[in-house]
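Re-run with default settings, no changes from the original entry. Doing this only to confirm the output is reproducible before filing.
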Amino acid sequence: MNGAVGRPAVPYLDLARAAAEGGEALEAALLACVRRGRYVLGDEVAAFEREWAAFCGAPFAVSCASGTDAITLALLGLGVGAGDEVLTVSMTCAPTAVGVQRAGATPVFVDVEPERLTMESAQLESALTARTKAIVPVHLYGRVADMHGIVAFAKANGLFVVEDCAQAHGAALSGRPAGSFGDAAAWSFYPTKNLGALGDGGAVTMARPEVAGRIRKLRLYGYATRNDAEVAGFNSRLDEVQAAGLRVSLGRLAAWNARRRAIAARYDAALASLVPALRAPPPQRAGEAGAQHLYVVRVDDRDAFRGRLEAAGIGTDVHYPRAVHEQPAFAALPRGPLPETERAMREVVSLPLYPQLADDEVERVIEAVRDSVRR
């Protein structure tokens, strides 16, 4: 919709702009894959795995078909499975819980920090049982969870940590990349991510070679060698074309993240005067460099706020309209009280934020938000 006569709408997200920015380099990389005639687990995948591991500061990276599969593979690679419980959050997208369930384990939800909206490490003790085997913190919106507190708790209780890094490409805490704190990290390359493919894709990064070896078997039917299944695996492969596109985009990721942070800083400065009617995004921790995947504010009457922005031609989204435990498929899963999660889910709104967003579009978003809040 366009409520501002004569002015084009500002889309919440426009993935075609990123593809256009890739230009001839992207087209050449994809065409080269087609001409080589090898489309699965070839040279492009191997090269991307090396390059992604280096970017993440990890000794190993194993690609797979999706971020959901990455969570499953990471847990199975560490030996987490049937009968185990995994502590995670409900302030996330369903794939976090789905990935745990597909490993055979049971997600157990704990609440989030009131402002940062990532896992509240102080809540872990009350959720711990004899069946607890791992923790899956989510680096929500590009903000790094309290990994110092979470890892300390995990070590004290003999638990594995698998970081859900689907929204944290390029984020860091205390000089360490997101994904380097736990035993493994799960990454998504869904097209909307900071590093997005032209379809689905994922990866697991880790430090231990034996974990990488198990995951490589699991993603390919459990094969130790061709047609020789050593364990019960499944099919979860990143194809060559996606790997080629990701390699081109990886070369732009640092610049894209810098642009995201610049837009977020502009929003921060321009919208600060609207507090408390419009509450600021989750703040960064001391020593954190967030990936700024999303720019999320909080308002009391979300539907009315979004309606006014839509009338002004500004696209918005909600991440997420329902907590995982509020969805029918997950309602019976164990959890403690989740007041901060449930409060945030009623208030969060995502404003446009992507590297190709033009400066004049950023100003239009700011203008529309100010007008909406001051009505």
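The longest strand covers residues 60-64. Residues 19-250 form a domain with the Aspartate Aminotransferase; domain 2 fold (CATH 3.40.640.10).
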